[in-house]
Each structure stands twice: as structure tokens, then as C-alpha cells.
Specification:
The complex is a heterodimer of chains A (125) and B (535).
Chain A (H helix, E strand, L loop, with lengths): L1 H19 L4 H22 L20 H32 L13 H6 L8
Helix pairs in contact in A: 1-2, 2-3
Chain B lengths: L6 H16 L4 H26 L5 E4 L10 E4 L1 H23 L9 H17 L3 H19 L5 H32 L4 H9 L7 H18 L7 H8 L2 H7 L2 H15 L11 H23 L3 H22 L2 H31 L16 H16 L5 H13 L5 H41 L2 H10 L5 H19 L1 H15 L3 H8 L21
Antiparallel strand pairs in B: 1-2
Helix pairs in contact in B: 1-2, 1-4, 2-3, 2-4, 3-4, 3-10, 3-14, 3-19, 4-5, 5-6, 6-8, 6-9, 7-21, 8-11, 9-10, 9-13, 10-14, 11-13, 12-13, 12-17, 13-14, 13-16, 13-17, 14-15, 14-16, 14-19, 14-20, 15-17, 15-19
The chains are: A mainly alpha (125), B mainly alpha (535).
């Protein structure tokens, strides 16, 4: 089980990092989601891997699953879920107002196309 | 138990909710509530600061659960100093946002502003490292909203970068916390200190990974060199009052480094040797160099100020990475100075941008701006402070940094970089200042000769209104604080020395937190280990 969990975290992290290094927002957001999945499983593993063990105190039980990482994972899931929603909306707004979904900020000097879309300096006045 | 400790977190949280629910359609009401809340916050943090200024440590147990199991908030000299600095910064920034009508250019400015304050206050006060992550996320979520306040293509694109970069930072933070928990089985900072010290030198690989990952996370927040790429674009595109408030956000990263690496991984810990002098100091020197070269090379005034933030964070990190008591106290003084100077500069850039019409902040020829002697004078003062020229606080700060760097092996390099980049910064700022304020008169004269059309003249006059009083007053307030930090540099450095002395003697912090009386559930059926201590 250790090998399975460890390799799952590794594969998800590697895929996430690859996608994060892409140039357009969509793959980057998918990459971030993969990274957050990886980190959630990683946090679980931080409490050691146990099967069939209760997380709350019970009479006559010797082994317990660590309850704290489960609480941490819950927090992390909620936060990453909310953050992903925020970044999707901001990326969407940026795509709609810039007409492309590139991550890089273009140099307004050398890129006349973008300089037309976004008047320099006086943004949104 | 002193209940005021939780007030800096609760007050903005409640106020933000009330503003969203009750005052979302009443701009005036939202403004009044936001200003009143921020002033009250200033009073509370001042009270906490005075309470902690005798060296006492206050603990607040959330839900009254005893320390390693429940979450604690802790006030000591460092945390109250940082909360007070935040509150002092927030007041003029908020007044500027109101005076310049920035808060009406989009929705929910005041609510997001209060949430941002809540996150920053919580990050400074918390004594639990996972709670630190949560407060980081709160301040980041609020900052995402503030960053793209008022919208616009360039701002949204910079906002996307900013959010993605910080999401990666948060993921890294979680990896660091997972590693730390796997190694120690606790997340309370005071408890961590004891458990990290008890780890064998032979089995320290995991804890070293955690220490480096945490340092990377804080370096992202503090924009240290290889991890600074998010800063210039997002700070220059953010609305001016937001960028000014963000001046404290980079200091949250610096605070994290100071707190964790004095308490959990103290400088004499064998397993984390070399982290600062081998890695952080060269990175800090590079940040200063790149930041100041960026100041020289910027084509826009707001980017210039953003790069000066990178430079000044590098300067702070030079003092910090020496990691002596003297270094920390120099870093803290520099943090105060650079927060005030950065905020003043961002607000001044906005004053200039408002009055230059289409040219905006580009360093190009343009006609003079209205009220230019006043704005130019204030820009001059803030630039002097930022470059570290006498007589303002930047000079004192830089002297302290240079003095602290003498304890390092790289002292020659550090002095050379600090002094030569100061020159570069002076050239960069004077080039920008003369382009915007002095050359403008020449341009105006030339244009008048060329065109001689009265209509154009009238247009120029119309498009450059006189500065409204409130924004100018709030910038003046920040500059007055810079002057005060210079005049009272003596008492301030004594205070910083006391703060760093307290940081280097963490026993009081640890025992106060762990011995605070709170609820613990006693369980005596079966032999189950206690909750939260499964290892």
C-alpha cells in the first residue's frame, strides 16, 4: 500500500508540475488541481497509513488512525476548491478582456496587438 | 486569559460580513464602518503592543482547549509590533482609497479590505503553524479580490499570474506542513520547538526537507530572488491603495522566517545549519541587485516602485540571513521603514497617474501635472527614503543592515552590493523623477511654441485637476511616519533589540504557551493514546 500511495502522489505531482509549466491558463489550472490532489493524499500519508482503524477513541482498541491529518485534509480540500473556483473566474475574465488565454504578460512596447486592446497606463478609468 | 488578543482577528471579520450584508448598496455607510473599524483596530493593536512591551507573553486559547491540541494565539513583542504596523499602514491607505474614489470603482472594496486585514492580523498572531497556513489563505483570497478590483485587461492578466503563483505557494506550504507533521506529530509552534530539538542528528533528513520547504514558502511570500517573479507585474497593475496595503504582505513572509527559524529551527540546531549563510544570503544579495537594476530599467513609474519593493525585501533579507540578534533587529527596523516608504511611493505614483491623462505612468514626455510642486516634493522625499539617502529612515535602516552584515563571512560582498545598488537606485529614481516632474515644463514650453492653439492649452488645464485634499493628506501622513521613524530611530532600535533578544530566548514563549491552563479531555477506558498524539 505504501508503494501505491507514494507512487500515486509522485505521478500526480509530476503531471501537475508538467501542466503548470504550460503557457495557457487552462492546462495550468488543471495542473494546480492535480497538485492539490497530490498534496491532499500526501497529508493523509503524513498521519501514517493504517487500514480498518478507528479515528476516535473506543474501548478495547489498540491501533488508531491519526484523526488530525483527516481534519487537515478537509481544510485543505475546502480551501483548494474555493481557490480553484476563484482562479477559474479570474482566468475567464482575463481571457474575455484580453482575447487570449496566455499566462505571460506581453510587453506592451513590442506587441502592438495587445497595446490596442489595453490602453497603456490608463486601464479601466 | 486576555480576550483582547483575539479582537484584531474578530473585529475585521465581523465588520467585513456586516459590510457585505448591510452596507453593500450604501457606499457612504461602508466607508464610515470601514474607517471606524480600522481606527478601532489601530487602538486595539496599540493596546496589545503596549501590553507586550514589558516583555510579557500573552496566550489566547481558542475554545479554551489546552495548548498542543487546541489552536493558540500568542502576543509577544514581535507579533504585536507587526500587527501595530499593519494597523498604522491601513489607516492612511484606507483614507487614500476613499479620497481618490478607488473604493467606488468596483464592488466590495471595503469588505475585502477588512478580510485582508483579518488575514494579516491572524497570520501575525497565531501560534499554530497550520493556522498560519489558513490565515495565509484568508489574506490571499482577499488579496485576489483586491488585486483585480476595478477590473481591466492588464490587471486581470496580472491577477491570473498572481493567483496561480500563490496557489503553487500554498500547495508547497501544505507539502511542508505534511512533512513537518509526519516527522513530529504536532503543529503547535511551541510544541514543535521541543520535538524538533529532540530529533536525532542521524534521522534528520525528513525535518531538513520540512525546514527547506518552509523557507521556500516564506521566500515566495517575501519575493526573494528566484521566487520573485509574481511581484513586479501584480504590484504595478494592482490598484494603488491595494498595492500600498500589499507592502505589508511581503513582510508576512519575512515574519514567517523570523518566527519559525528562531522558535522551531533555532540557529544552533545542527540539522538546519547553513540554510541562511549558504542559501538565503546570496539570494538576498541577488534580490537587491536585480531589484535595483529593475528600478533603473523600468519604463513605467509603477513598475519602478514594484522593483524597488524587490530590492528593499532583499535588503531586509540580508540583515535577516546573518541571523544574529543584531541582524534581526536591523531587519525589523528596515521592515518598518520599507513598509511605510513603499506604501507612500505607490500612493504617490497614483497621484501622478491621475494627473497625467493618457500617458499614465509611462516615463515619457508629457505636460506638467497640476499641483506638481507638492506632489514632486513628496515623491522626492519618499524616493530619498527608499534609496536610503540621509536624512530619512532608509539611511538609518541601511546603516543598521551594513552594521549587522559585519558578522557574516560574506561581509565584503554584502557591503559592495548594498552600496553599489544604492547608487543604481538613486540614478533610477532621479531619472524617473526628473522625467515626470522637471522635463515636463520643457515639454510644455515646446508644445506651446509648436502648436500655439489656445484650445489645446485649455484642454491641458482642464484635464489636470488640483489634488483633492484627502489623498494628499494620507500620503503626507505616511511621510510624517517615515520622518518619525527617523527622528525616533534611537528608541525604535532599542525596542527592536529587545524584540530580537526575546526571539533568541524562546523558552519563555514555549513555557507560556504549553503551560496555559485549558480544557483537556481525560480518557481512561482502554489504553488508547491521547487524541492528536498518535505517534
Amino acid at each position: 500500500m505504501e508503494l501505491l500511495v507514494a507512487s500515486a502522489i509522485g505521478v500526480m505531482t509530476a503531471a501537475g508540475i508538467y501542466l503548470v509549466l504550460r503557457l495557457r491558463t487552462f492546462p495550468v489550472i488543471i495542473g494546480i488541481s492535480l497538485l492539490t490532489y497530490a498534496v491532499n493524499v500526501f497529508l493523509f500519508a503524513a498521519g501514517r497509513l493504517t487500514t480498518d482503524a478507528p479515528a476516535v477513541l473506543r474501548d478495547g482498541v489498540e491501533t488508531y488512525a491519526d484523526p488530525l491529518p483527516q481534519a487537515l485534509v478537509l481544510t485543505a480540500i475546502v480551501i483548494s476548491f474555493g481557490m480553484t473556483a476563484v482562479v477559474v473566474i479570474i482566468a475567464l475574465g482575463s481571457w474575455l478582456s484580453c482575447d487570449d488565454d496566455l499566462i505571460d504578460t506581453p510587453r506592451s512596447e513590442s506587441d502592438p496587438e495587445v497595446a490596442d486592446v489595453v490602453p497603456r497606463g490608463g486601464v479601466s478609468r | 486569559m486576555n480576550h483582547w488578543i483575539v479582537a484584531p482577528v474578530l473585529l475585521p471579520a465581523m465588520l467585513a460580513a456586516i459590510i457585505v450584508l448591510a452596507a453593500r448598496f450604501h457606499n457612504g455607510l461602508a466607508r464610515v464602518m470601514s474607517v471606524a473599524g480600522t481606527v478601532a483596530l489601530l487602538a486595539i493593536t496599540l493596546g496589545l503592543f503596549l501590553g507586550a512591551s514589558d516583555g510579557s507573553i500573552g496566550v489566547y486559547l481558542l475554545g479554551d482547549w489546552a495548548a498542543p491540541f487546541g489552536i493558540v494565539l500568542v502576543t509577544d513583542r514581535l507579533s504585536t509590533l507587526m500587527t501595530l504596523l499593519t494597523a498604522i499602514l491601513a489607516v492612511p491607505v484606507l483614507l487614500y482609497a476613499i479620497g481618490s474614489n478607488w473604493d467606488r470603482r468596483g464592488r466590495h472594496f471595503h469588505a475585502l479590505f477588512q478580510f485582508q486585514l483579518m488575514g494579516i492580523m491572524g497570520a501575525f498572531l497565531t501560534g499554530d503553524i497550520f493556522n498560519l497556513f489558513v490565515f495565509f489563505e484568508i489574506l490571499l483570497i482577499a488579496s485576489y479580490g483586491l488585486m483585480i478590483h476595478a477590473g481591466g485587461g492588464a490587471r486581470l492578466r496580472a491577477g491570473t499570474q498572481y493567483v496561480l503563483y500563490n496557489l503553487l505557494g500554498s500547495t508547497l506550504f501544505l507539502f511542508a506542513l505534511g512533512t513537518l507533521y509526519a516527522e513530529t506529530g504536532t503543529l503547535n509552534m511551541a510544541d514543535l520547538a521541543g520535538r524538533v530539538a529532540a530529533i536525532d542528528a542521524g534521522a534528520s533528513s525528513g525535518i531538513r526537507v520540512a525546514a527547506v520547504l518552509l523557507l521556500l514558502v516564506f521566500a515566495v511570500k517575501a519575493a526573494i530572488l528566484p521566487l520573485h517573479f509574481w511581484l513586479p507585474a501584480s504590484y504595478s497593475e494592482a490598484p494603488a491603495p491595494v498595492a500600498a496595503l500589499f507592502a505589508i504582505m511581503t513582510k508576512v513572509g519575512a515574519y514567517g522566517i523570523i518566527r519559525i527559524y528562531t522558535l522551531v529551527f533555532p540557529p544552533d540546531l545542527a540539522s538546519t545549519q547553513g540554510l541562511f549563510d549558504t542559501w538565503l544570503l546570496p539570494a538576498a544579495l541577488l534580490s537587491v541587485a536585480v531589484g535595483m537594476i529593475g528600478v533603473l530599467g523600468s519604463e513605467r513609474l509603477d513598475r519602478l516602485v514594484a522593483f524597488s519593493v524587490v530590492g528593499s525585501m532583499g535588503m531586509l533579507m540580508i540583515a535577516l540571513s546573518v541571523f544574529t540578534a543584531q541582524g534581526i533587529s536591523a531587519a525589523l527596523y528596515y521592515a518598518i521603514h520599507s513598509t511605510l516608504a513603499t506604501a507612500a511611493l505607490f500612493l504617490l505614483v497614483d497621484l501622478v497617474r491621475d494627473r497625467r491623462g493618457d500617458v499614465g505612468t509611462d516615463l515619457e514626455d508629457a505636460t506638467p501635472i497640476a499641483g506638481s510642486p507638492l506632489v514632486a516634493g513628496m515623491f522626492f522625499a519618499a524616493a530619498i527614503a527608499m534609496c536610503g539617502l540621509p536624512p530619512l529612515s532608509g539611511f538609518v535602516g541601511k546603516l543598521l543592515v551594513l552594521e549587522a552584515a559585519r558578522a557574516s563571512d560574506l561581509v565584503v560582498l554584502a557591503w559592495a552590493v548594498v552600496l553599489s545598488t544604492s547608487l543604481v537606485a538613486i540614478v533610477g529614481f532621479s531619472r524617473a523623477g526628473s522625467q515626470v516632474f522637471w522635463k515636463a515644463h520643457e515639454v510644455a514650453a515646446r508644445r506651446a511654441d509648436d502648436l500655439e492653439t489656445e484650445a489645446d492649452e485649455a484642454n491641458v488645464e482642464d484635464s489636470t485637476p488640483n489634488p483633492a485634499p484627502l489623498p494628499v493628506v494620507s500620503v503626507g501622513f505616511l511621510l510624517a511616519l517615515i520622518v518619525a521613524a527617523t527622528v525616533f530611530a534611537g528608541p525604535l532600535t532599542e525596542m527592536m533589540d529587545a524584540t530580537s533578544a526575546q526571539l533568541f530566548a524562546p523558552e519563555a514563549y514555549i513555557s507560556t504557551v504549553l503551560e496555559a491552563n485549558g480544557k483537556v479531555i481525560e480518557y481512561d477506558g482502554g489504553h488508547g493514546t491521547e487524541e492528536g498524539e498518535a505517534h
